[in-house]
Amino acid sequence: MATLRAFEVAVDLARRQRDAARQALLLARRQCHGAQAQLAQLAQYAHETRQRWGPSENAVLQPEVLRHQVQFLHRLEQTIALQHRVVGEQQERADRAARLLAAAEARVASLLQVLERRRGDLARQQQRREQKETDELAMQRHVRGLGRQLTQGI
Prior knowledge:
The protein is mainly alpha-helical. It has 2 helices and no strands. The longest helix is centred in the last third of the chain and has 91 residues, at 63-153. The radius of gyration is 37 Å and the shape is rod-shaped.
């Protein structure tokens, strides 16, 4: 019975670890989606900025303004590249969390199988004990019955 309780405790612990892994995966996915949304915003902003600052027919830009625009767009592109890396890292974290969750779920399933097998073994052992007791009781009754027949016959 003690080993059965130990397996029940192990299953409970594995379930808690699985639930924590599930929460970690949800968090990682939320962070990944947030990073992707931020990347999309940056890309949209860069596109709008290029459209707004693009060449127009009557526009005459001062060299200082043009230089400022080029620098700004260059920094914006650097930020977009950095955000691409962040998205990749967040995606890797989410993938790693998914693998950890799958491993935790497999551990819970395997522990449950072992626990059920142990319960079945214990139930069969108990059934054998009960059957043995029933057989012994029947044998004792039979022997007593034979003994009475022999003593009555004398």
